[in-house]
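Worked problem 6 (solution included).
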Amino acid sequence: MDANTQFDTPLGGDSLQSIAHLPLLLTVEAAGVQLSLGRTEAFALVKSGELESVVIGQRARRVPRQALLDYVTRLRAQNQRAN
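Solution. The predicted structure is:
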């Protein structure tokens, strides 16, 4: 069983309380699930820097749980400015 299997359900809100149950660091795939995105899109966001990630060791890339809220907050601000 994957360590992030229990986190394969998207977030139910956009507050710190709604992500408090998540681990401090998620795989890129698990972060994508939380954002209702596919694996490819999640990795594209990480590659572009839009979604913060950290590297552990030489290969393990993880997304801090706070980065999920930061990303959604930026999207909401951009949408509000556009309207």
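Discussion: The beta strands are 25-27, 54-56, 60-64.
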